[in-house]
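Field reference: sequence -> structure
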Amino acid sequence: MTFAFRPLDPLKDAELLHSWVTHPKAAFWMMQDAKLEDVERAYMEITADEHQHALFGLQDGEPVFLMEYYDPRHRELVGLYEPLPGDVGMHFLTPATDRPVHGFTRSVITAVLARLFEDPATERVVVEPDVTNKAVHALNEAVGFVPEREIQKPEKKALLSFCTREQFFKKHGLLSTGVTA
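Structure field:
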């Protein structure tokens, strides 16, 4: 699957985002009770913050997933681990659907990581999913993440995991130049 990316527009995209983040299947996103204005406000804060970014992943020009990335030296993980130069934090959300496509979520996380590693400054991607989210732990490991330890964030107990550039490219049979091995 091939995806394109575009920056999120918090006002224009709020209604669609709201339907995604408040769906029961998005419980780990922790916005179940959010009102439309809450979603607008949250994403206005993200897009205005130089240390956080939100993008839509597009398929055939239509948004099909949400990608967020952040600088863990300034957001999300401050004081919870010692960031290395080139660390980038990441979240992604695939919306609930009545017609699941086999392999879609794995294609999404692979595209998200490829997008992050396009930046030569990115050496390692860090994630901190809820410790009880076993499905995402398996998915993370399938694309190259290695769990390090559990951490306590204000909103959840999380599994701190890392995927280096080399782990990602090796897992996908690529050289770090992006050329197929």
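Note: Strands lie at 4-7, 52-59, 62-70, 87-93, 124-127, 146-152, 157-164.
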